[in-house]
Amino acid sequence: MNEPVRIQQEDFLQDAEIAALKASSQRIGGIATFLGCARDFSEGREVSEISFEAYGSMALAEMNKLRDEAISKFTLLDARIVHRVTTVRAGDNIVFIAAAAEHRAAAFDGCRWMIDELKQRVPIWKKEITPQGEAWVTPHP
Amino acid sequence: MIRVLFFGPVADRVGQREMSFDFAPGMTLHDVMHKVGMLYPGALSIVSFVAVNQNQIHDKQLALNDNDEIAFMAKFSGG
Asked: I want to staple B23 with a disulfide (CB 3.0 to 4.6 A). Which of A66, A68, B42, B66 is the partner?
């Protein structure tokens, strides 16, 4: 199976990511996932495409740190983070995060923490392409 | 040689993704920021993060080494 932390152009398969998690330990009692996908509307405008750009080497290193920290902080058994860097259209997958733990509370907390931290710490930017033009996205809390 | 990278909205303002400066002993991060600011006035006003060799740096007086890689980055918006 692929590395647990990846930046890639191509789409990912949630089932494959979850199967890889489950294969890592039979002590897993719960897996919480977050799937980020592209919307066709933002800030009052139609969005036809979203284009991503990353400082690839730093982003990957930061995502690996983030995973390690989450595993330690929430006593996760395993975790996966996959972010696409390409141009996507409405409905397309953007990011997948999964946290596996013995119990659900740690899985939920770890998953939430990873996506929140990713948005703050990982050097990736998105540009929305609308019928009116293009604009870099201002981060949301 | 000091390699300077620009990404996303910062790259759009600068009009390029990469440039380089000759390294000089004693050169600091502030010196490079000043040079870029002089070449592209206003371009760095949206910079929220600066990384040297892929590590985020807050001390602008950081002494640079030859072949360092500096990145000027706006607020992240991944996810």
From this structure: B66
Please give the domain boundaries of chain B with CATH numbers for all domains: 2-73 (3.10.20.30)
What are the extents of the domains in chain A?
5-131
Residue B29 near residue B62, CB atoms below 8 Å: yes
Q: What is the pTM of this model?
A: 0.94
Structure-block tokens of residue B52? 């040297």
**Number of other CB atoms surrounding residue A3 within 10 Å:** 12
- DSSP calls for A79-117: EEEEEE-SEE-TT-EEEEEEEEESSHHHHHHHHHHHHHH
* The amino acid at A37: C
8 Å CB contact of A125 and B54: no
- ipTM value for the complex: 0.93
pLDDT digits (tens, 9 = 90+) for B9-39: 999 999 999 999 999 999 999 999 999 999 9
**Helix pair A56-73, A104-121: axis angle to 10 deg:** 150
Please give the class, per CATH, of domain A5-131. alpha beta
- Nearest 5°: phi and psi at B20? -145, 155
- Give CA–CA dist A130/B36, Å, rounded: 31
DSSP three-state, residue B1: coil
